[in-house]
Please model this.
Amino acid sequence: MYILAIESSCDEFSVAVLKNEKVLSNIISSQIEDHKEYGGVVPELASRLHVQNFNWVLEEAIKKSNVSINELDYVVYTANPGLIGSLIIGKVVSQTLAQYLQIPLLPLNHLHGHVYSAFIDNKIEFPAIALITSGGHTEITLMKDHLEFEILGSTQDDAIGECFDKVAIKMGLSYPGGPAIDALAKKTDEAKYEIPKPKDINKYDFSFSGIKTASINLLHKLKQADTKIDLNSFAYSFQKTCVEYVIEKLEKAIKEYQPKFAILGGGVSANSMLRTKFTKMASENKIESIIPKNEYCTDNAAMIGMLGFRTIIKEEHKNAIIRT
Ligand code: KG4
Ligand code: ZN
Model:
């Protein structure tokens, strides 16, 4: 079957075409440069830019896939969670296309999509545990089978990426803060600054507002005292606290649920320290670890298409067209 997938939940508009589980094209228009001057995503601007961009992204994805639109069997799209204006643009484009082509339309969940990014080009066995770390979400999910998502824990306040972005602004770095902090932290391995991990709220839930406030307060204190701040070491100290915090929780879940695979997903999984510690921890626990390619870690339509494929072939869709 040929699936066209659309992702528009935040500041990326992306269209992918899949032949069953194989990604034929995955075009992403990113708005990072447009939001930079505001220090974060401006929802109204994100929606307006989606309106400007959807047409070329759609054309390019179809052209690159070498599939004619009349061959498409399904349209799938991100229905939530996300910015409402951004989601609506994706929904309207998807609905229009599906109605014009007279093919089924499937609304899907963005976070489930992030988990499914790991299934692109990988064979994953169950049970699996996914750690999704992004600008809007931080979540540990247990999967006993395809499409069975059991949330073990999630953030109770800020998301990890949001925390990186907000602390980075106070460090004088530009948006998005995650890659900027990552780059500075690579220049040292000395954690000169003490940024405490939060006290446990419960086993697998997270809280990042404490780390954010402690980091920002420390920056203020150092500035007020006219102390020169070693930004490389500050970035390293902050990043180490965040990464160790999520990895410790994930390891606890792995020890309790004994999965065969550990999956890392979401934009923050581009972080070099997180990738290294994740892989090391999985191997120490003797389980396989999967980190999707960077293109599939940040918001993209291929992951939504992959989730769509699994959703379509579920029992209730057994009449789905499978092309071989
Ligand atoms: O998944 P994503 O593209 O969008 C959301 O669904 O939120 O994630 C974007 C987030 C931003 O907060 C960005 O700062 C963070 O991912 N990020 C990173 C790195 N690259 C992107 N955080 C830490 N280290 C990185 N290398
Ligand atoms: Zn996302």
